[in-house]
Design brief:
The chain is of the alpha/beta class. The chain is built from twelve helices and 14 strands.
């Protein structure tokens, strides 16, 4: 790729991406544009501007994408009640297509020939960034330094930084030994002591939640209001998507909700142990399913459950922009037109209990039919005999053939 003159780099301002910035300039003799996204990671992103300026970058993009992230990525994903391998709420996976989208858009705006990222050759993120980028611009060139250079250890990175005058923050005393990724949906923890799947995470590792043992002894009740499958009110107050998720993170985190310790199957082939904190997302999923239980037709709900694992795998593997994910999303969004109403939940020492659900206009639940008392002729129990015999017919035929 000798014809590259300008590259858009996904830039955090940390050691790795600062080294990548200089390496791109040196290796490709190109101009570098930096892009830093605020997805609600809880750290200031503006310092990245000063670092980029210090390194001579002329075009610097720093953007607050929190609302777009929750509105256009997290909420559509949750309409499908999406979890990967039965547990993981996809907090890292769902952020990557948005970053890929902005990298491509900035490349177009600045006339860049290529994009670059700091994902390693062992992880899923390289796949997610690049599949997303190619789906949005099939002609884009992508530079993944970790797959090209020979800087294979922290010592070699530090030596490169010293040689090129790249400012390096000294490791602070008490700094977390884990590799962490955060956004408004979650924090992930990998590496360090967690590489042994038998090792229990230290309680000091968790940032957003208290341990259930230290949570308040008094339960807290909350009410979530939904419109077309999306949470729009919390205790009667209308909130934007990002504000909703932030508020739920704080309230659920106080009660020790949303901690997860799993070994997952990466798309690149290896098993990886990770710990995740997803307090607000855990509450949203619980509430959403509760509301669907009274507003969705049985077969429609079961169809969604059949599609969900496939949908989750598409997001985990990086196929957010694929035609099959878009088709599933269109079906899911169609089902959500009736998912409007309120859910009441109890938060207590790491658990969430649904204590009420209602929908004034869309509920399919009939007290008259479901009652164990006199239903006044709404349901003829004698009809069940024929229903059972017809459904048993194939089973009876099979049993008779074995005599």
């Amino acid at each position: 790729m000798t014809d590259i003159r300008k590259v858009v780099l996904a830039y955090s301002g940390g050691l790795d991406t600062s080294i990548i910035l200089r390496w791109l300039e040196e290796q490709y003799e190109c101009e570098v544009v930096t892009f830093t996204a605020d997805l609600g990671q809880g750290e200031e992103v503006e310092p990245a501007r000063a670092k980029a300026q210090q390194m001579g970058v002329k075009e610097i993009y720093i953007e607050d994408l929190r609302e777009e992230f929750v509105r256009d990525f997290v909420y559509p994903m949750f309409r499908c009640n999406t979890i990967y391998e039965g547990e993981y709420l996809l907090g890292t996976s769902i952020a990557r297509p948005l970053i890929a989208k902005r990298l491509i858009e900035i490349a177009r705006e600045t006339g860049a020939d290529a994009i670059s990222h700091g994902a390693t050759g062992k992880g899923n993120d390289q796949v997610r960034f690049e599949l997303g980028a190619y789906a949005l611009n099939p002609d884009i060139k992508i530079i993944a330094p970790w797959r090209e250079w020979n800087l294979s250890s922290r010592e070699s990175l530090m030596a490169y930084a010293e040689k090129h005058g790249i400012p390096v923050e000294q490791k602070r005393k008490g700094k977390s030994p884990y590799s962490m990724d955060a956004n408004l949906l979650h924090i992930s923890y990998e590496g360090g002591p967690l590489e042994d799947p038998w090792t229990e995470p230290e309680d000091e590792m968790w940032k957003w939640s208290v341990s259930p043992e230290q949570a308040p002894d008094k339960a807290e009740y909350i009410e979530l209001g939904f419109e077309n499958g999306d949470a729009v009110t919390l205790d009667g107050e209308k909130l934007s998507p990002a504000t909703m998720l932030k508020s739920l993170n704080e309230r659920a985190g106080r009660h020790g909700i949303g901690r997860l310790d799993i070994v997952e199957n990466r798309y690149v082939g290896m098993k990886s142990r990770g710990c995740y904190e997803t307090p607000g997302g855990t509450v949203l999923l619980k509430a959403h399913r509760a509301l669907e239980s009274i507003t969705l037709d049985r077969e429609l709900a079961h169809l969604k459950d059949d599609l969900m694992p496939r949908y989750a795998t598409l997001i985990y593997n990086g196929y957010w922009w694929s035609p099959e994910r878009l088709a599933i999303q269109a079906l899911v969004d169609q089902t959500q037109k009736s998912v409007t109403g309120e859910v009441r939940l109890k938060l207590y020492k790491g658990s969430i209990s649904v204590t009420g659900r209602k929908s004034e206009k869309e509920s399919l639940f009939s007290e008259t039919i479901a009652t164990f008392e006199d239903d006044q002729g709404a349901y003829d129990q004698k009809d069940a005999e024929g229903f059972i015999k017809l459904n048993a017919l194939r089973l009876r035929i099979q049993a008779q053939s074995k005599k």
